[in-house]
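We close this part of the discussion by returning to an individual protein. The sequence in question and its structure tokens are set out directly beneath this paragraph:
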Amino acid sequence: MGRAVTVATCALNQWALDFEGNLERIFRSIDIAKSKGARYRLGPELEICGYGCSDHYYESDTLLHSFQVLEKLLESPATQDIICDVGMPVLHRNVRYNCRVIFLNKKILLIRPKISLANGGNYRELRWFTPWSKAKHVEEYFLPRIIQEVTGQETVPFGDAVLATKDTCLGAEICEELWAPNSPHIEMGLDGVEIFTNSSGSHHVLRKAHARVDLVNSATAKNGGIYILANQKGCDGDRLYYDGCAMISMNGETVAQGSQFSLDDVEVLVATLDLEDVRSYRAEISSRNLVASKVNPYPRVKVNFALSCPDDVAVPTCMPIQWRHHSPEEEISLGPACWLWDYLRRSKQAGFLLPLSGGIDSSATACIVYSMCHQVCLAVKNGNADVLADARRIVNDESYIPEDPRELCKRVFTTCYMASENSSQDTCNRAKLLAEQIGSYHINLNIDAAVKAVVGIFSAVTGRNPRFSVYGGSSRESLALQNVQARIRMVLAYLFAQLTLWARGMPGGLLVLGSANVDESLRGYLTKYDCSSADINPIGGISKTDLKNFIQYCIENFQLTALRSIMSAPPTAELEPLVDGQVAQTDETDMGMTYAELSVYGKLRKIAKAGPYSMFCKLINMWKEICTPREVASKVKHFFRMYSVNRHKMTTLTPSYHAENYSPDDNRFDLRPFLYNTSWSWQFRCIDKQVNAL
């Protein structure tokens, strides 16, 4: 009687439509799983084609190439004597489903379609797939000829079923189904399923990992069982970073934990667990057993295969472990850094260029690149041949071995301080000192000649000379003059990104990094097509508050002492003239609100789904110790006016790392109009009526 089962799960850095690379990584995971004695291997959601294919799912090519990859897997000796569970899209009776294809020894055992589709936030699965709505029902699926020729099967089971091996019973969930209120593992567990599997495409959000871990552990805490979760990892082609965290849990406790952030393309977790521990755990839960005795059974696909060995009494099994969570500052240091590395190597560019202003946001972006260099050197030190090969290709040196993060930074990272007559010497010095400490190739330049040339064209055409407000100009003149400086910096950033390496006698070009934080984007406190316009932005989904905490983390962990003066300086755009040689302009004064207030507005607007009136109602209680209702009303109105006036800027927002659930990203996460009636007359009248009543 076998009792010790050995199972494997993995986190794979798959890439949308990279069928060749995806196949290679799947094979590597299977090889590692088999080498560690696993008899079952689970992979991430849609791992064959990559999760982020978006509208490419409509294309027949995506289905064709997925089946071609499946053919390679089925016919390979590498997949013999292990149950393989892979993800791909499948067209059944002209309906497209997000499926698991489970096979063993050149035979497909079951195709299991996803029941609950993810369709909120960044997810749009209902756009491309249909949920399987026939509970505990199985149909015949007619296999394509290329698969029939390998398996010798004409049809296979398709639907909501479970696998019955010689020693246990397995049931599959797919990502969102774990988060649903009626998760399939509940019914499956009552029907005697002992091993639950979940293939996920779950992305990183700050402070989210514990929620996923708690869900997995709670899935078996009340019902008993073994729960195996696989996840995508890395940047597969868009704004999201999939953060791994593959795990195995039994009876409510974690027994194996994968990394959340790493540069390893393939990570495999293997655990040996005692089925009798599940059975004895369930035996004493009388309420469970009473319900289980009445449950309608699942269709069972019988599998002539065992996950255990007959004589396994002496086989050691895994013990529970304590899950170790990263702090938010560690998450900011690691997640965007891994995302940047994936983007850099997959875009085949030679590095990054960052306009470094000496302020918190651009400094935090620089620190993330420095953290990326740390991760690369650590991965190479730990023997990661893929990272070493990528690093050598990026720096164009086949003998290069990255050992010092500062030295690697010098090769792949260019920073540029773009001074104007409105810039202070303090910010110039801060940028220069930080560049020295992280090792970036640093450029100092002055944009005054370009600004005067552009303004000169306007003056020559119109005969008018716009002036800053401190010199008697109107607010329109002053804002236009500030925007000219900001936009010229964007033009120069791209020029230097394209030609800096050429001027240094080196091949390749650089990706331009933006550094607008999530709060500034929400308020619209940025110039459209200024330095916030870049190729990618690693901090665009992170709040100012979290960035300040991250800067403190970098001071302590990277010994970047230059950040101390950056932390203590008030945030400023430095676009208006200096007064007595000192900065007179500050961000919070310009915005008419603090960054702390902006974070509150952002969370209420997006996460709490509050319009102006609801936000006012919530804030009069939240802020009752510091503001009168009339003051709260004034603040809420000002925020919504500024938000709606500037919403159009979100349509051109640089693709940003998604890290915060109140992101205003207009591309897919936060879908709103960009032409508002900015008077909000009806809404504000409701607020005024309530203020008068109070």
About this structure: The longest strand covers residues 83-92. The chain is about 40% helix and 15% strand. Residues 475-503 form the longest helix (29 residues). The CA atoms of residues 423 and 613 lie 41 Å apart.
